[in-house]
Automatic annotation (TrEMBL):
Domain 3-beta hydroxysteroid dehydrogenase/isomerase: 12-284
Key words, A-Z: Membrane, NAD, Oxidoreductase, Transmembrane, Transmembrane helix
Gene transcribed to yield this protein: SDR42E1
Record protein name field: Short-chain dehydrogenase/reductase family 42E member 1
Bilayer-crossing regions: 285-305, 367-385
Similarity field: Belongs to the 3-beta-HSD family.
Organism: Castor canadensis (American beaver)
PANTHER family attached to this UniProt entry: BIFUNCTIONAL POLYMYXIN RESISTANCE PROTEIN ARNA, SHORT CHAIN DEHYDROGENASE_REDUCTASE FAMILY 42E, MEMBER 2
GO biological process: steroid biosynthetic process
Lineage: Eukaryota, Metazoa, Chordata, Craniata, Vertebrata
Length: 393
């Protein structure tokens, strides 16, 4: 290709210290692009030569401006977010500042510095909030904000709308317009993923994974990190003139394109590490109540002891209620082709990092767990009692 027509491109990745942002940065580097990773903390792995890391907080406009200084950035991947899982989900102020305030800062600096392309990493959850969705597509409306059970999804929804509305806005430097698109990925997995998989493995290892819940026919979706990387690179191309700017202003669902029962998806991981897959199945409503109580307890006690809630209501929905989306639009417009992956390399990653049960040992006994199980049974009995009986207690 003629180097004058396409000078070497510089991209900035917010959240570039995280699992996905870092993988994307490494993949982009391989394609010959200059990569700047912007994050509050460095990646867990060593940064390959040729990739720059800029430390800064997306909540502070001055940090964002500093990151864009001195480089002619032509594309931004805005991945940084807060509050997706675990106890993080319950810190509302921080979630709002990072997800909404941070996105405002990025949009403002893109316009000011004349960055023509922005790809926002969104989530299924801007549409899904516990309702059954089968093969949904991008024509589905956003979930009304007040129906989001969690702050993360609500703020991601607000931010996605801001990003898509910013499509077509004038750049202050040079001429032309900002073009934006949003990718809405399913749950991400891959070797070395640090957010969901270690939590699942720790539950398995502590003997807490003793039951599954919900309808065995319920289907959800996942996306392998490398498929998501591919989708992001394709989306950045599809915002360019030579692709007719086809992606400008557009959202896309991105997944492996293989709906699967949440728990069955993790079976190879549980069994691959030498544990028994649970055979008890509890009703979804019961687990939802339990998650609600856990969140209440965290709300009341969290200031004294910021414990990791076992499950939140959003996590119960995400894992137990059918929701999957068509990837046709991404295939057609971006040229996205989901590669087949399984959990084998994830199993190998955990074994290489000292996990996995040595043969012969028993499932660990856990008093806490037994107490929880009894509590669940008590709750389920109470929910069946007529309310007059409970009121008279
Ligand atoms: C995004 O902006 C471009 C440039 O102004 C415009 O041509 C395109 O129609 C916009 N996309 C949407 C979905 O509004």
């Amino acid at each position: 290709m003629d180097s004058q027509r396409s000078p070497k491109e510089t991209v900035l990745i917010t959240g570039g210290g995280g699992y996905f942002g870092f993988r994307l940065g490494c993949a982009l580097k391989q394609t010959g692009v200059c990569v700047l990773l912007f994050d509050i903390s460095r990646p867990a792995e060593a940064i390959p030569e040729g990739i720059q890391f800029v430390c800064g907080d997306i909540r502070h406009l001055s940090d964002v401006e500093k990151a864009f200084q001195g480089e002619n950035i032509t594309c931004v991947f805005h991945i940084a977010s807060h509050g997706m899982s675990g106890r993080e989900q319950l810190n509302q102020k921080l979630i709002e500042e990072v997800n909404v305030g941070g996105t405002d800062n990025i949009l403002q600096v893109c316009r000011r510095r004349g960055v023509p392309r922005l790809i926002y990493t969104s989530t299924f959850n801007v549409i899904f909030g516990g309702q059954v969705i089968r093969n949904g597509d991008e024509s589905l409306p956003y979930l009304p904000l007040h129906l989001h059970p969690d702050h993360y999804s609500r703020t991601k929804s607000i931010a996605e709308k801001k990003v898509l509305e910013a499509n077509g806005s004038a750049l202050e430097r040079g001429h032309g317009v900002l073009r934006t698109c949003a990718l809405r990925p399913a749950g991400i997995y891959g070797p070395g993923e640090q957010r969901h998989l270690p939590r699942i493995v720790s539950y398995v290892e502590r003997g807490l994974f003793k039951f599954v819940y919900g309808d065995p026919q319920s289907l959800v979706e996942f996306v392998h990190v490398d498929n998501l990387v591919q989708a992001h690179i394709l989306a950045s191309e599809a915002l360019k003139a030579d692709k007719g700017h086809v992606a400008s202003g557009q959202p896309y669902f991105i997944s492996d394109g293989r709906p699967v029962n949440n728990f069955e998806f993790f079976r190879p991981l549980v069994e691959g590490l030498g544990y028994t897959f649970p055979s008890i199945r509890l009703p979804l409503a019961l687990i939802y109540c339990f998650a609600f109580l856990t969140e209440m307890a965290h709300f009341i006690l969290g200031r004294l002891y910021n414990f990791q809630p076992f499950l939140t209501r959003t996590e119960v929905y995400k894992t137990g209620v059918t929701h999957y989306f068509s990837i046709e639009k991404a295939k057609k417009e971006l040229g996205y082709k989901a590669q087949p992956f399984d959990l084998q390399e994830v199993v190998e990653w955990f074994i290489a990092h000292g996990h996995g049960r040595s043969s012969g040992s028993r499932d660990s006994e856990c008093l806490v767990w037994d107490v929880l199980l009894i509590l669940l049974l008590v709750i389920s009995v109470l929910t069946w009692l007529p309310s007059s009986v409970i009121l008279s207690i």
